[in-house]
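Input record (one chain):
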Amino acid sequence: MEWEKEAKKRKEEQRRQDIETYNALVDDTLAGVFPTLMGVSQAIGDAKRRTVESFRKAIEMKTDIYGIRTDQRSHTFTNSDGNRRVMIGFYTLDNYRDTVEEGIAMVREAIEALGKDEESRALVTAVFRLLSRDQKGTLKASRVLQLEKLAIDSRNERLIEGVRIIKESYQPQMSKQYVRAEYKNEEGVW
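The corresponding structure, as predicted from the sequence alone:
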């Protein structure tokens, strides 16, 4: 029994030392690679800024040529050979004012009133799926557009009004800016 206690104690001590060795290894490795990664990150950020600034004149010229000023969030520039392109834009997050909840309630009320038989219950389930939220609790704008089409096709005034309220509540929020550069390989794949 005494030797078992001693073996267990040695094993625990070895584990503690292994953890300390591991923590020191992680600290040393981070200290070694982090300056390089910070430099790469800075270089990428600088390249993105220069790219956006370089294409600013092209964006302005496109607006002048076509005479249309839009709230366009992305631009794709492709060379004349069609084998290189740069995309500049902003990621967009779906966001809604608080009135979206009233619209959702109105849509739910209108849809629940339709679920009288097996066939219409399937429609109710499909519509509720369109109203489901993502992991962050956000209603997806693309689903609202699908819901709008269903509402128009149904000619149900209450449903149409609920979807209108949801759409009017939509306030997209621009997130991070991105720059993507792509080229076609020998097989013609971007």
